[in-house]
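Progress against Task 2.4 (sequence-to-structure conversion) is shown through the following example record, which the project officer requested during the mid-term review.
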Amino acid sequence: MFTFLKSLVLPAPVAAAQPSPAPDRLQAPGVEAFDVRAALADAHGLPVLDWAAAQAWVARIADSAEQARAWTACETAWLQHLQAALGPAYRLQSQRSAILLSTLPAHVAEATLGFVNKSVQRILRTLDGVASTPDWGQDILIVFDDEDGYYRYVSHYYPDAGEFAASSGMYIHHRCGHFVTVKADLHAVEPVIAHELTHACVSHLPLPAWLNEGLAVNTEQRLAPRPGALQDLRQMRMRHQAFWGEAEIQQFWSGKSFLRNDEGNELSYDLARILVAQFAVDWGRFRCFALDADLADGAAAAAREHLHIDLGAAACAVLEREPDAAWAPQPERWNDAPERGAF
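Structure tokens generated for the chain above:
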């Protein structure tokens, strides 16, 4: 896998940004300068930009092309400040719409950026009519040197209390979407990129976590299958049947089960994969379903309207259980707001 990345022949040269002072202010025609430094917040010692302030500044620019340039300038300025905070070994490199912050050797960084650009186009074709890319901005990838740096950064986007599942990659949907991973996991960089880019390409839709993750896992397996990823199907079937009950399936529909730190996390991703793979056989119907899905009800109404199925009955069938009305999404039983499948 990693050898393949090294051997990619890239269609365009990569621009490597030499370390330079991160800008304090950004200029755009017709508006006052944007104070970048004043808009930076401290996230466990790492800078995070106030993206609401950046959006407000960009919105005051009259010309749409200048707005796009200003937004890209905000992204790049933030990455330069983050680069400075992470240390002199980190470099910014870009190719087409992709930009990478890492300590990777130049040739590996080039191949990684090439794979990002290639993957975006493949995802758009695979998820025809569902996936899209924004008019503004770059495909941002941050590769941390170690897990300490990775978790130090992503913890900013988690609640203060609770235990959460471990991860090696994450798409962060927070006004400025970007995805992050760990250098130690780059032997699996292709699946991570394919998975997280899928999240980025469907982030414009209010998808429940199970549908979002099901799309990401199936797309990952199609574009960058992991060697040895197949498990004993009989064993997985037994694990599913032993784990899922009325309470657990409500966590699944609400998205909470994807944050569990036990086997429920793995089984949630697998159940989402199975359901999406079955529902997507008729892509025309599935596309209408995905476009109409709402995280507030776990996509139940859209499933009835476009797939002509009850989600609870579908889950029971997959798990070889008798149909049970209590297995349908019941938002009134979800204690907190449903989780958007953002990463």
